[in-house]
Structures are given as structure tokens and as C-alpha cells.
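Priority: low. Protein: Nicotinamidase. Input follows.
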Amino acid sequence: MKALLIVDVQNDFLPGGSLEVPQGDSIIPVINNLQNHFDLVVATRDWHPANHSSFGSNHPGHKVGDTIKLDGIDQILWPDHCIQGSPGAELSHKLNQSMIERVFFKGKDPNVDSYSAFFDNGHKIQTELHDYLKKKGVTELYITGLAADVCVYFTVKDALQLGYATSLITDATKGVNMQPGDTQKALEDMADNGANLMESKDIS
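Result:
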């Protein structure tokens, strides 16, 4: 069985949001059209407490974009984003949510970030997504959403490690590019690790 996974299409990652992905809203119509091709559609949301350790505002003397050690892991400091209960944490109203069977929340632990839809960044805590997909009999995963070089990238890598036949739909994702070229490097690495990079027009 194949499933469509929509990663973090939330207001804070869209134009005007606190962690804006350039042209992030342009992928929403593509994702909406894709949903009709899948029997199972699931989504994720970043869901951070206000005191999350990945926020630059919680580290006096540091600024957004700095890298620190967080629980022994390199951590980029981000603007405050997707704070639990805030408008910025909501899925975009432009995203068709009627076909989304379940939404999985990540990044709830203030002491460790969770880019991937499957694990925290330390791979110590697993979300409910993998168990859910296994129970549904999913073997093929098609991944979309934001951002291509962060949460989508880590989700694709974990999906591959977990044994899913994993495809990234390239016109249904955009990167934040904290450093120039981040998205291209992420795409190349995903392909090198076994992901199938494809466009939405190739979904049948």
C-alpha cells in the first residue's frame, strides 16, 4: 500500500511566517491535487513549547543561525516558530485537509528538536507514525511538504532506513536554504541514499 505524507505545511513556514520558506505556498495546490491519487494521506505538524531549546530567543548571547550543542547534537538556532496553540502552528487553510486521515505532532520535547516525522534528532524517541503506517500495511511512502532541506530531508532519510520504498515529489517541496545550496545538497543526498526523486505529473 502507498501513502502520501505531508510534512509541516504550517503558517509559520509560509510567506509572512516567522520561519518563512521562500515560495512555500506554491506547493500547496500541487499537494492538494496529489491527494486524490492516494488511499491514505497523513500529515505532520511541528508543535513546539515556547521554551523550546532550538529557539534562538531562548539562548542569550546567541542569534538565529548560530549552531550550538543540544543534548550532544549540533543544533541550528531558529526563530520562534510553530508554538503550540499559536496561529503559526496551524496547517495552512489553503491545504485541503478533508482527506488527511491523521496528523502527527513532533518537536514537543523542549530539550531536543525533531526534524523527522519519525524520530527526534537524537533518534531516542519515536513518533507514532511508523507504527501507524505499519498497521495500515504501508510499504511505499510519497513525501511532500516543508522544508526540503530540513524536516523533509530528515523524514526521507528515516523512511529509507525504516525500509519504505520512498519517493520525494520534488515539485511538492521547497527548501529554506539557511546556507546557499542547502536544498540541492539535500536532494542529492536523498537520491544517493536511495530515494526516488520524481514530479507530481508522474504519479498515476
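The helical segments are 28-34, 129-136, 151-161, 182-192. The two ends are 14 Å apart (CA to CA).
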